[in-house]
Amino acid sequence: MSRKITFPTGISTTSIHAGEEPDPVTKASAPNIVMSTTFVTEASTGFSARGMEEDAGWVYTRWGNPTVHQLEVKLAALENAEASVALSSGMAAISALLFHVLRAGDHVVVSDVAYAALSEMTNDTVPGLGIEVTKVDTSDLDAVKGAVKKNTKLIYIETPCNPLLRITDIAAVADIAHKAGAKLAVDSTFATPIATRPLDLGADFVVHSLTKYLSGHGDALGGAVLGPKEELAQLRRTVGIRFGAALSPFNAWLIMRGLATFPLRMRAHQENALQVARFLEGHSKVKKVIYPGLESHPQHELAKRQMKNFSGMITFQMEDGPAAAEVFARELQIIHYAVSLGHQRSLLFYLPTDDMLETSFRLDTPEQRESWDQYAGKGVFRFSVGLEDPEDIIRDLELALEKCPGGP
Ligand SMILES: Cc1ncc(COP(=O)(O)O)c(C=O)c1O
Question: For residue 91, how far is its CA from the centre of ligand 1 (angstroms)?
Fold first, then answer.
């Protein structure tokens, strides 16, 4: 029985079949979960992973595991990447990438607004290791060009970025990076490979929090770095194995299970988000709505060019955000007032500007602050539109909005 697929497959088939094969012994159609931490080896197997080849037999699950490997093959196929390394969370993947590429004395350009833990890590942890960091609004290509130095090794962007949903032109920034002899890494968690494949646009690395859309059900943390085979083999041998952030095989299995319906889910996320965004845009108590799929998004043209699917993330602003947050947390019946995103359940959370600028984001120039204000005002509700019936999501919002202050 051979189940090797010999022809190129579409994204739905890839999501279901890539990396998976029926078990050769039991003929089980669904993947096994191999929970063993250790594997019986040859007498010649080394005790250090230093010289480990990518196709060596399994030794120890922190080095590699058959279930995790199946997920890695699937992710690489989805991103059109040569290889992928799956780790225990999105932040583990981001840390592994930064510490694989950067050394003391190097310089890195980072999006001034990106996922909060990455922002905070590049505000203090990374500079503390003697690595110079410059934060710029990476949607401003002149700012990116101006930030590049002789010792720039990496430009790190997130698009659309969390929480603003501001978009960066990947191909243009890849060009700037490569002319400067640097690499480009893209956190594509919000876009997903259904919308955008950064490697096809010239990026060198992609990172994902698998915790979000790729697994899709809010029950498994995971992360991945994708890129060239040789680089990733080296990343696995060093930071991947030594930092110890191995992905549990059980989580790898859950994420693979989520990926089987990933293209279907992304289609539904987009459809629901567009309906909800239009509803919010028409509501008298809502000040501003940002969604890449709306004509009113300041970068809608770039979004149309770079994203084949606008994903399910919306932000919106209210006159009195903190008071509205109280109402939403108390009144919403379907939508969970909670952090995270990309789940089947709708999730809403308020991010006040003053707090975010104190804890996470450093905006040094008036232009950076102006861009923040354009997208976020005094604070935004970050809304991950789920897969419930769109009319129910809207009804839930409508009822809660009636109790919010403001409006006529
Ligand atoms: C864009 C983005 N990147 C990375 C992360 C970190 O992922 P994890 O929570 O899996 O570590 C998040 C989490 O919210 C995120 O939104």
Answer: 6
153 three-state secondary structure: strand
Q: What are 219-266's pLDDT values in tens digits?
A: 999 999 999 999 999 999 999 999 999 999 999 999 999 999 999 999
Kindly report the backbone phi and psi dihedral angles of residue 316, in degrees, each rounded to the nearest multiple of 5, phi listed first.
-145, 155
Question: How far, in Å, are 23, 47, 221, 253, 336 from residue 224 at the CA level?
Answer: 25, 26, 11, 14, 27
**What is the residue with the minimal CA distance to atom 8 of ligand 1?**
90
Distance 261 CA to ligand 1 centre (A): 21
pTM of this structure = 0.97
Q: Whose CA is nearest to atom 6 of ligand 1?
A: 90
- Asked if the domains 11-259 and 263-402 are classified in one and the same CATH topology, the answer is no
* 66-87 pLDDT tens trace: 999 999 999 999 999 999 999 9
CATH topology of domain 263-402: Aspartate Aminotransferase, domain 1 (3.90.1150)
Spell out which residues line ligand 1, taking CB within 6 angstroms.
Answer: 89-91, 115, 158, 162, 187, 189-190, 209, 211, 221, 223
The kind and range of the H/E element at 398 are helix 390-402
Paired with 290 in beta bridges are 315
For residue 25, count other CB atoms closer than 10 A to its CB.
Answer: 7
Q: How far apart are CA 78 and CA 216, in angstroms?
A: 15
Domains of the chain, by residue range, sit at 11-259, 263-402
Q: What is the CATH number of domain 11-259?
A: 3.40.640.10
What is the spatial distance between Cα 124 and Cα 373, in angstroms, rounded to a whole number?
24
Rounded CA gap, 341 and 383, in Å?
A: 8
